[in-house]
Amino acid sequence: MDIVFKAMADKNRRRILGILKKKDMTVSEIGRxxxxxxxxxxxxxxxxxxxNLVISQRKGQFIYYSLNTSVFxxxxxxxxNYFQK
Length: 85
Hints:
By secondary structure, the protein is α+β, with helices and mostly antiparallel strands. The chain has one domain: Winged helix-like DNA-binding domain superfamily/Winged helix DNA-binding domain (Arc Repressor Mutant, subunit A), CATH 1.10.10.10. Helices cover about 60% and strands about 15% of the residues. The chain is built from 5 helices and 3 strands; from the N terminus they run ααβααββα. Strands 1-3-2 form a 3-stranded antiparallel sheet. A hairpin with a 2-residue loop joins β2 and β3 (about 60-65). α1 runs antiparallel to α4. The longest helix has 16 residues, at about 70-85.
């Protein structure tokens, strides 16, 4: 769970998650919402993928990113259980 909180500690990563909440997007589509470099955006997406918060799927020549909502549900449950003890 630490890797999830570490990934979400960055404001750009939280913005990416908010953007992907609306629909699956390519890196180019996500990048239109930012003024950061492509390398920085890729770094943020990699961190979100390592935390399992984002899933990537190739469709033709494009890679689409989407939220992994099941991980959010697991984290919320674990967080609640931790503080109910």
